[in-house]
Design goal:
2 domains; about 20% strand; elongated
């Protein structure tokens, strides 16, 4: 067994030799240290970018609901002689059949109705908004993890009583009412119909401004 004093002597001798070698090969030592430092920085940078990218993708997916399933029609039928049903091919009976109570895994369900024949003009007086219009059910905003800066979302009775109410985004609110005025409680024109704004959504990046109106009827 080597005594402690002898062990310390060996360590000091090794340290002196290492320092002497570094002093005699300064350029090589500097390059080695620089290589190690660059390698460490590169690993940290890659880890940071990867973590940031995962967070960005996860955040984007969250805006559409990580546990959501969207059913849409595939219009890529190339046979001109085949009889194709108009619209989405989904009707109210289909929605009722796959609603809550059908499957334990289905907690919420909403139709999404779009106007494909013409673009509806959204306006207040002489102010216009460049927005799409979607007819949705009361569960739509919970499915999409939406939150509100003012007002409320759509309710079941809005559907059942066919109320002319709408939910708009912040961009549409600014375009129609300006930055200082709240849109909740005000009326807007969607096409030829008048709707009362009941809620304003917090902004989310979904590729455009949208006006949501109450609709439980699915286009067939």
């Amino acid at each position: 067994m080597i005594p402690l004093a002898a062990s310390m002597g060996y360590l000091l001798d090794i340290a002196r030799q290492s320092i002497s070698a570094l002093r005699d090969n300064r350029l090589r030592s500097l390059l080695s240290i620089a290589g190690i430092a660059i390698g460490i920085v590169a690993v940290i940078a890659i880890g940071t970018v990867s973590s940031g990218g995962r967070h960005l993708v996860f955040s984007e997916l969250q805006t559409f609901g990580l546990k959501s399933v969207w059913v849409v029609r595939d219009y890529q039928d190339k046979d001109p002689h085949r009889s194709v049903r108009r619209g989405t091919g989904i009707d109210n009976g289909d929605v009722a059949a796959i609603g809550p109570g059908c499957c334990p895994s289905v907690r919420r369900l909403t139709p999404v109705v779009t106007e494909t024949r013409q673009r509806l003009v959204v306006r207040v007086g002489n102010r216009y908004a460049n927005a799409s219009v979607l007819g949705v059910g009361a569960e739509y905003f919970a499915i999409n993890n939406d939150s509100f800066v003012a007002g409320r979302g759509l309710r079941m009775e809005d559907d059942s009583r066919r109320r002319h109410v709408a939910v708009i985004g912040r961009d549409v609110e600014r375009e129609l009412f300006g930055a200082a005025r709240s849109a909740v409680g005000s009326d807007i024109r969607v096409g030829h119909d008048k709707y009362t704004v009941v809620g304003v959504l917090r902004a989310q990046d979904r590729g455009g401004s949208v006006v949501f109106v109450a609709s439980k009827n699915v286009s067939d």
